[in-house]
Amino acid sequence: MAIEAQMRSENLGFPLCGSQDWMVDNGCGGSGGGFSDFCFNVQQKHQLQQQQQQQQQQQQQQQLQNQQQINQNLCFDTSFLVPTLENNNTCSSIMASCSQTMEAQAAKHRQEIDQYIRLQNERLRLVLQEQRKQQLAMLLKKIESTTQVLLKQKDDEITQANRRRMELEDFLRKLEAENQAWQRVAQENEAMVMSLNNTLEQYRERVSCCLINGADDAESCCDNREEEEAESDGVDYEQIRMKMKVCKSCNSRSSCVLFLPCRHLCSCKACEAVLDCCPVCRTPKKASIEALIF
C-alpha cells in the first residue's frame, strides 16, 4: 500500500507541475493571477502533506506488522527450544519407562504364548492318546475275531486228529489182535507141518523097510501083503497131502496165499488176484498174505 501511495503522489505531482508550467507559460502567473496561484499552491501543499502523512502511517503500520511477525517468530523459537531443553531428562526417563513397559509386555506375551503352546501340546497329546486307544481297540477286535476263527479251525483240526488217532488206535489194536491170531495160526501150522513131516518120515522108513523085506523074501505072502498095505498107505498120504496143497480155485497149482479174515490157505498167487471171497468158506476177502512154505 505504501508503494501504491507513492505512485499516486508521483502521478499527482507531475500533472500539477505540468499545470504550473503550463500556467506560467501561458502568462497566468502575472500580477493579475497571484491570488489564484497562491490558493492553488496552498491546496496542493495540503494534499501533498496528507499524502505524506498517509504514506508515513502506512509505513509505520507495515513496520509494526513486520516487528510483530518477527516477535512472534522469536517467541515461537524460544518457546520451542526451552521446553525441548527442559524435557531432555524427562524424555530419557519416559523412554526408559517405555522400554521397561515394552519388555514387561513382551515377557507377558511370551508367557501367554508359551502357555498357549503348552495347552495345545497337552490337547494334542490327549487327542493322539485317544486315537491310539481307539486304534488299539479296533486292532484288538480284529485280532480277537481272527483269533477266534483260527482257534475254531484248530479245534476242528484237533477234533479230527483225535478222531483219526482213535481210529488208528482201534485199527492198530485190531492189527495186533490179528497178528497174534496169525502167530497162533502160524505156530499151529508149524506144528502141523512138523507133525506131517514126522509122519512122512515114518512112512518113508516103513516103506524102505518093506522094500528091503520084499527083496529078501519075495515069495512071502505076508511080506507082500504088508508091502501092498504100505504102498497103499503111502499113496493115500501123498494124495491127502497133494489135496491140501492144491489151489481150490484152479485145482492145478499149489496154494500159497492165505485169505483174511477166514485164514484159509486155499489159493495160488494167480487165482488170488481174481478172487473176491474165500473158495472154501465163501467169506468176503478183506486182505491176503502170501505164505512161504518150504
UniProtKB/TrEMBL annotation:
Coiled-coil annotated spans: 41-70, 151-206
Q: What positions does the domain RING-type occupy?
A: 247-282
Q: InterPro entries, per this entry?
A: Znf_RING (IPR001841), Znf_RING/FYVE/PHD (IPR013083)
Q: Which domain of life is it from?
A: Eukaryota
Which GO molecular-function terms appear in the entry?
A: ubiquitin-protein transferase activity; zinc ion binding
What keywords are assigned to this protein? Coiled coil, Metal-binding, Zinc, Zinc-finger
Q: What is the designated name of this protein?
A: RING-type domain-containing protein
Could you tell me which species this protein originates from?
Prunus armeniaca (Apricot)
